[in-house]
Design goal:
Layout lengths: L18 H21 L7 H23 L2 H7 L3 H26 L3 H23 L5 H19 L6 H18 L5 H22 L16 H25 L4 H7 L2 H13 L6 H22 L16
Helix pairs in contact: 1-9, 1-11, 2-4, 2-8, 2-9, 3-8, 4-7, 4-8, 5-6, 5-7, 5-11, 5-12, 6-12
Subcellular location: Cell membrane
Pfam families: EamA
Family: Belongs to the EamA transporter family.
Length: 319
């Protein structure tokens, strides 16, 4: 997610790195990377119920935080802006889809494919910039996109599975990033507004359909102290990395943010293979090799001193 100021003009981009900003950026991406460890614990609820709780507890936490950040007035003012509310209604639905796919994938043992989605995301965002914003792409960027397409084709042909989780994660978050990029609202205020928009849906879902697999009881999940703690943690797990990212984006260069974005999917990849033992055969490894090669080209082009290259929104607020 692109970090924007909560109010006022955009901050001046730093020309050199700030150690605190680097630490905040790395912390944000590291937290996003280890989120699968947390979501693995929610096996007592269906993924969509977990997302509903995530909306509720994230909203309550952000409503408590915004006054201390001096942005509660901006949050209230935005509720009276029809255009902002229309766009954020769409982004709320898109990020809700992203959360659902990701949490389902974690619970069903598809962390590896989810990490592939977040590796794909920068290239997907670059393609969206070309299609929707008219941004010009260099030859190396086109080559990187073609290599990513080859990786998807390899996943279908060699592995024998359509990578719908990876494409769902990359597509939903890429679209989310594009819509948030064209909407003048900061990360925390935007997420609070999206959560408020999603609140009736989340509460309604839990009341009408919630936790059928856990006993057809809307209070399912509150039957133990550990489960209550996990449900309450959905708020901080969503807000903490976002706030760290918003802080970092004001204090370090966009090029650095663009490189650090690979921390999160790299951690997910390592967790999938080494902690959870998800299979990584030759076909899957070839898919990742193509993606990594494409990202190497993309990063090289991004860092070349021949004028600025647009950097897409990079925070995996999905997770």
């Amino acid at each position: 997610m692109s970090a924007q100021p909560e109010s006022g003009p955009a901050p001046v981009r730093p020309t050199r790195e700030d150690p605190g900003g680097l630490a905040a950026a790395f912390g944000a991406y590291a937290l996003w990377g280890v989120l699968p460890v947390l979501w693995k614990e929610y096996d007592f609820l269906p993924a969509i119920d977990t997302v509903a709780h995530r909306v509720i507890w994230c909203l309550l936490l952000l409503l408590a935080i915004l006054p201390f950040r001096g942005t509660f007035g901006n949050f209230l003012a935005g509720l009276r802006d029809p255009r902002r509310m229309a766009v954020l209604t769409v982004t709320a639905a898109v990020i809700g889809l992203n959360w659902t796919v990701f949490i389902w994938a974690v619970g069903e043992g598809h962390i590896l494919e989810a990490s592939l989605g977040y590796f794909l995301n920068p290239l997907f965002s670059v393609l969206l910039g070309f299609l929707l914003l008219g941004e010009k792409l260099t030859r190396l960027q086109w080559l990187a996109i073609l290599m990513a397409a080859a990786a998807v084709a390899n996943q279908i042909v060699a592995v024998g599975a359509f990578p719908w989780v990876a494409l769902g994660v990359a597509g939903s978050f890429g679209l989310y990033g594009y819509l948030r990029k064209i909407t003048p609202v900061g990360p925390a205020v935007g997420l609070a507004t999206e959560s408020l928009i999603g609140l009736p849906v989340a509460v309604g879902w839990l009341l009408l359909f919630g936790a059928r697999e856990a006993g057809s009881d809307v209070l399912a999940g509150f039957d133990s102290g550990w489960h209550v703690f996990l449900l309450l943690m959905t708020g901080p797990a969503t807000a903490a990395p976002l706030l760290l990212f918003a802080t970092a984006a004001r204090r370090i260069r966009l090029a650095t943010v663009g490189i650090l974005q690979y921390v999160a999917p790299s951690i997910m990849f390592a967790l999938a293979v080494f902690l959870y033992g998800e299979p990584l055969d030759a076909g899957k490894l070839a898919t990742f090799a193509l993606i990594w090669a494409a990202l190497a080209l993309y990063t090289w082009e991004m860092l070349r001193p021949r004028g600025p290259v647009p950097i897409p929104p990079t925070g995996p607020a999905g997770g």
